[in-house]
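Saturday, quiet lab. Running sequence design on the C-alpha cells for the scaffold JK sent over.
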C-alpha cells in the first residue's frame, strides 16, 4: 500500500550524488524524511553527505533551524553502497547525468529491487519522461520530478507526467514537494517542460533585438530591468549567470524538439562566444566582463544639454499623450496644433510599430520624428526610438527633453515594438500557447515562471496588467512588418483579447 509522504516515517532514495542529488538529499532530511543516498562513484556519495551536513549546519548559524533539528536531519542521511539498498524506499529520485540510456539503466535496476508501490522519479531537466519510462514494467508509477539549482533556495519543482504516469503518482510527488517546503507545478511531458519552455521568449527575443542592431545587449538588460517590467535581470545578465554553455544548448534543443517552431528560434549571437569559451560569470567573460565575480559596469554617457524649441505629440492615445505632456511641458513648449509646425520635433506613441512607419503614415519628415515607449508609462527608464534618417543633433535634443525630469533614457534604433513591448509580447504569447496546449494550468504557468525564473509576476498576470488587446495589437503589427510566423498570436491570447477576459481564464 502506498504511504502518504506526510507519514512520520518516510524514506526517499536519491541516486546520483552530484550538485542536484546532494541538494535534494538536504531538503528531504531537513523536512524529516529519511534519505538513502547512492552513487556509483565510491567517494561521491560520502562527499555529498558531508556537503549536505555542512549546509544544514550553516542553516543553524543563520538561525533558520535549531541545533537539535539540524543534528537529527544530518543523521537522517544514510550513504549506501548498493542500489539494491533502495528496497525500503517509498520514493526514489534519480539525479544522474542527462543521458537517456544511462537513466533507463538506472530505473531498470531500481525496478528489480524496489517494491511495486515505490514511486520512481527522475530529476531530468531536458529528456522525455515518457522515453525514460518506455522500458519499465510499471510505467504508471514513474514521473519527472525536476528541481532547480540550488535546490534548497529554488522553491519550485516540476511534476511531469509521461503518457502512462498515473494520477496517484502525481499526487504523491505533489505531496512530497509540499512536505519539503517546495511549490509543485504540474506539466505534461513536452520539450523544456514548463520553466525552460516558458523562458524562451525573454532570451530569444533579446538575442533577436541585438542581432538586428536595435540596441546593445546592455541596453536591452537595462530596459527590461528598469523600463517598466521590473525583471530582476535582463536576458544577457541571466545567460551570463546560468552560463552560455548551458543556455545555448537548451535553446537549440527546445527549438529542434519542437520541430523548428519559429517562436523558439534562438539566433546565432551566442555561438561564437561559446566557441571562444566565453561562458559568462564563471569564466570571467560572457556578454559582460567580471572581476571577482562582479560585473564590470561602464559609466553612462552624459545627458545632452540642448533642449528643443517645441515638441508635437501625436494624439493616438490620450492617456499616454497626457503623461508625456505633463513630463515635458515643464521644460519644453508643447505644440498643440493638429499638424506639427516646422520647428517642432515630432513624438509618436506606437504599439508594435516603428518610427519610420509612423512618420510615413502621418506625412511627417522622418528626420525630426521619434517614438517613445509608453507601454508601462514613464515611471522607469524611458525608451527613445529614432528612424534610420533621424537627425542626430535633433536626437540629442529629444534625449535631453525626455531626461529633463531626471529619468534615465535609452536611445534605440528603429524597431517595431521597441525593446520592452516586443519582449513582453513574446513572453506572454509563449505562456498563452503553453496554456492553449494544456501543458499546464494558467495558475501553474504563472507560479512556475515566478518561482523558477524570478519574474516579478507570472507571464499571464503580466499580460493582464498590460492588457490582452494591447499585446495582440503589438504582435499583429510585428507579424505584418516582419512576415515572420514567430510573432503570430496564440489563439488563447486572441480569444481573450476579443472577449475582454483574463489570460488566467481556464478552459475545461
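Result came back. Writing it out in full:
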Amino acid at each position: 500500500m502506498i504511504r502518504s509522504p506526510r507519514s512520520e516515517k518516510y524514506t526517499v532514495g536519491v541516486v546520483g550524488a552530484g550538485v542536484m542529488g546532494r541538494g535534494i538529499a538536504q531538503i528531504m532530511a531537513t523536512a524529516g524524511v529519511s534519505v538513502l543516498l547512492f552513487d556509483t562513484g565510491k567517494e561521491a556519495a560520502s562527499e555529498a553527505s558531508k556537503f549536505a551536513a555542512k549546509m544544514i549546519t550553516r542553516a543553524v548559524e543563520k538561525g533558520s533551524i535549531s541545533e537539535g533539528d539540524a543534528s537529527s536531519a544530518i543523521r537522517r542521511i544514510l550513504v549506501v553502497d548498493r542500489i539494491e539498498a533502495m528496497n525500503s524506499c517509498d520514493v526514489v529520485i534519480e539525479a544522474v547525468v542527462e543521458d537517456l540510456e544511462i537513466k533507463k539503466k538506472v530505473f531498470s535496476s531500481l525496478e528489480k529491487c524496489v517494491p511495486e508501490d515505490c514511486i520512481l522519479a527522475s530529476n531530468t531537466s531536458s529528456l522525455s519522461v515518457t522515453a525514460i519510462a518506455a522500458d519499465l514494467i510499471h510505467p504508471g508509477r514513474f514521473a519527472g520530478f525536476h528541481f532547480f539549482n540550488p535546490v534548497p533556495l529554488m522553491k519550485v519543482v516540476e511534476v511531469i507526467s509521461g503518457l502512462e504516469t498515473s494520477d496517484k503518482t502525481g499526487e504523491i510527488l505533489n505531496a512530497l514537494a509540499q512536505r519539503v517546503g517546495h511549490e509543485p507545478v504540474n506539466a505534461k511531458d513536452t520539450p523544456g517542460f514548463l520553466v525552460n519552455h516558458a523562458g524562451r521568449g525573454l532570451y530569444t527575443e533579446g538575442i533577436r533585438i541585438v542581432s538586428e542592431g536595435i540596441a546593445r545587449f546592455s541596453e536591452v538588460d537595462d530596459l527590461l530591468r528598469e523600463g517598466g517590467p521590473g525583471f530582476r535581470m535582463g536576458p544577457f545578465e541571466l545567460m551570463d549567470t546560468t552560463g552560455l554553455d548551458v543556455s545555448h544548448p537548451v535553446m537549440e534543443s527546445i527549438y529542434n524538439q519542437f520541430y523548428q517552431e519559429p517562436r523558439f528560434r534562438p539566433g546565432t549571437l551566442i555561438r561564437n562566444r561559446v566557441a571562444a569559451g566565453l561562458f559568462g560569470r564563471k569564466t570571467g567573460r560572457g556578454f559582460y566582463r567580471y572581476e571577482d565575480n562582479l560585473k564590470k559596469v561602464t559609466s553612462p554617457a552624459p545627458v545632452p544639454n540642448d533642449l528643443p524649441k517645441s515638441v508635437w505629440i501625436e494624439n493616438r492615445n490620450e492617456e499616454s499623450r497626457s503623461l508625456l505632456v505633463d513630463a515635458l511641458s515643464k521644460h519644453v513648449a508643447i505644440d498643440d496644433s493638429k499638424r506639427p509646425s516646422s520647428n517642432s520635433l515630432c513624438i509618436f506613441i506606437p504599439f508594435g510599430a516603428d518610427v519610420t512607419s509612423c512618420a510615413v503614415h502621418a506625412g511627417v519628415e522622418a528626420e525630426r520624428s521619434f517614438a517613445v515607449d509608453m507601454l508601462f508609462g514613464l515611471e522607469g527608464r524611458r525608451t527613445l526610438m529614432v528612424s534610420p534618417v533621424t537627425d542626430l543633433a535633433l536626437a540629442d535634443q529629444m534625449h535631453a527633453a525626455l531626461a529633463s525630469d531626471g529619468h534615465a533614457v535609452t536611445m534605440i534604433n528603429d524597431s517595431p515594438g521597441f525593446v520592452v513591448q516586443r519582449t513582453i509580447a513574446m513572453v506572454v504569447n509563449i505562456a498563452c500557447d503553453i496554456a492553449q496546449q494544456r501543458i499546464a494550468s494558467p495558475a501553474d504557468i504563472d507560479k512556475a515562471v515566478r518561482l523558477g525564473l524570478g519574474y516579478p509576476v507570472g507571464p499571464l498576470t503580466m499580460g493582464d496588467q498590460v492588457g490582452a488587446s494591447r499585446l495582440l495589437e503589438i504582435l499583429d503589427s510585428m507579424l505584418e512588418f516582419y512576415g515572420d510566423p514567430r510573432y503570430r498570436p496564440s489563439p488563447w491570447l486572441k480569444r481573450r483579447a476579443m472577449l475582454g477576459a483574463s489570460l488566467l481564464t481556464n478552459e475545461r
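Notes for JK: The radius of gyration is 26 Å. The chain has 20 helices and 16 strands. Ask whether to fix the surface positions before the next round.
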